[in-house]
Records
---
Amino acid sequence: MMTADPLGAMKIDVLTPEVATDHLAELVELLVQAVENGALVGFVWPLDAPTANDFWQGAIESTTTGDHLLIGALVDGRLIGTVQLYLSPEPNAPHRAEVYKLLVHRDFQNRGVGAALMTEVEAQAKNHRRSLLLLDTVEGGASERLYRRMGWREVGTVPHHFNDPYGKPKASIYFMKHLS
Ligand SMILES: CC(C)(COP(=O)(O)OP(=O)(O)OC[C@H]1O[C@@H](n2cnc3c(N)ncnc32)[C@H](O)[C@@H]1OP(=O)(O)O)[C@@H](O)C(=O)NCCC(=O)NCCS
């Protein structure tokens, strides 16, 4: 059941492979409902649960390399949001990391969960001595507003970078953020 104040009861942390696997079904649900709602997160609709399951199993496996952090937001033991951080393994970019697949369950949106996940991304990036973050997102959505509000700087727009899950062309915006 949803709490009146999800932030009050919310825990945000890096998920170990074991904990992420415990929440695999919730990760699958998060991704499937986001794509159904039109989110541009690499998939098209219809997205079936086995495909989403394969994606998350791959993401969980890649966390074992140490270059990839899977962060989760949990309320009452239920995973309601996630984001991923890739620490550049390239020797000439030890200061850089990229942010992927910020997802908040639709029942918990507009309560600050997305902002809290992004705050944790920044904290984790700093813990790993990263000072430059990059991401791209669809133009004109809640995510664009969120990143601008959190001080991300627009690098540029790419027209028709992706199709949305229903085949409509969409532009994306690249953002960067320097961490002090
Ligand atoms: C983008 C996304 C992650 C944002 O998550 P969220 O938890 O809703 O984000 P927040 O709650 O921090 O902010 C969203 C809005 O709620 C508002 N808000 C935050 N806390 C609030 C509160 N306590 N009361 C009322 N409004 C609040 C914010 O001001 C913001 O308003 P805006 O949309 O007018 O700019 C979510 O919409 C989502 O999962 N979308 C689908 C996937 C997607 O597109 N991901 C981006 C990939 S790059």
---
Amino acid sequence: MARSKRITFLAELTKGYHTVLDIGSDHGYVLLEALQKGYIKKGIASDLRVEPLLQAQKNLENQDAKTILSDGFLNIHESFDLAIISGMGAYLIGDILNHAPKDDITYILQANDKPEILRTYLMEHGFMITDEFVVRDRFFYVIMKVKRGKMALNSKDLILGPFLKHKSEAIPYFEKKIQMLSKLLNQVDEKRKQEIKELITIYQSNL
Ligand SMILES: C[S@@+](CC[C@H](N)C(=O)[O-])C[C@H]1O[C@@H](n2cnc3c(N)ncnc32)[C@H](O)[C@@H]1O
């Protein structure tokens, strides 16, 4: 079955890792793709809810993968070298990372909204972004590669992304942001209007 560009891209980012934990795996498609393509050796699919976990178990039944019912990292006791947290809100990803292991593992994070909130969280909680990507699927999705470490981002970096701001493939994403924000201008009060204008200026400065 053809997978969405977002799922395919997430799976490609697992290349070269051994054991990959997918938190909030839902259907388990990212791990399925990564295992089927031979990008990784083992998968751990975990979810807060039983129903999606059973679905992942079914989808992954012929693969070297296990499923674990867990709220974020709380019930994960196995070792892994990459963790994926994708398809959730930025605040929820932050809540989950509050209990991330202290070990030197890599994270692939994809928030459905507010990447600037996620970048702020990462900076304030001892994580550093090591790369960023944007994928155009049904929407634009920002994906971050992250490790534990220190980073200092200014307000422009928080909005644009310290790596995305240098990538030409991110320009259509910035243009879309400008378009969406411009539409909002007529629907908000003066204070919000000023904030939106500042955001538009930041996006425009990077085109
Ligand atoms: C929208 S789906 C995203 C699925 C997949 N990760 C993706 O990128 O397509 C979000 C999944 O996260 C799960 N989830 C939400 N909060 C969670 C938590 N605290 N710990 C583990 N899973 C969680 C939900 O049950 C749901 O299956």
